[in-house]
Design goal:
By secondary structure, the chain is of the alpha+beta class. It has four helices and three strands.
Length: 142
């Protein structure tokens, strides 16, 4: 999925969750002002808060690409990433050597200034195999 589409989906999900939250807060406040029971409205408010929390948590933990949980990968090692996602499309992992491995995620043929290049999810690691950085980039050399 093109990064522009992913950004639109993330922004739309956050916006919808916040609109749902605002509507439920307004409904609950209206019931409080008019001294009506707030049971159903309070349940709606709790659901809206939970939905907004889940959407914000997902978009924060999957910033680089929606298929990869950046927080989980950054807290692990390169060998764990290879075990979880399979052999990388670019790069190799060798014990005792720093490096970078990459997994193909999409080719940018999007509507806004496409570069028509293959994009990869790169995982950089140090000598101990500990992940130091994750990024979305093109193949080295363009």
């Amino acid at each position: 999925m093109n990064v522009w589409y992913m950004l639109l989906i993330y922004a739309g999900a956050i916006l919808l969750a916040l609109v749902f939250l605002a509507v439920s807060v307004a409904a609950t406040m209206n019931a409080v002002v008019k001294q009506k029971t707030v049971g159903k409205r309070l349940a709606l408010l709790i659901a809206a808060v939970l939905l907004a929390g889940v959407v914000l948590l997902f978009t924060s933990s999957h910033k680089t690409y929606y298929r990869f949980n950046d927080w989980l990968i950054k807290s692990g090692t390169a060998s764990e990433a290879i075990e979880r996602f399979g052999e990388p499309d670019i790069g190799t992992y060798a014990e005792g050597k720093p490096g970078r491995i990459g997994y193909y995620i999409y080719t940018d043929d999007g509507p806004i200034m496409p570069d028509h290049l293959e994009h990869f999810y790169f995982i950089a690691f140090d000598e101990q195999g500990k992940v130091t950085e994750v990024s979305d980039s093109v193949r080295p050399g363009g």
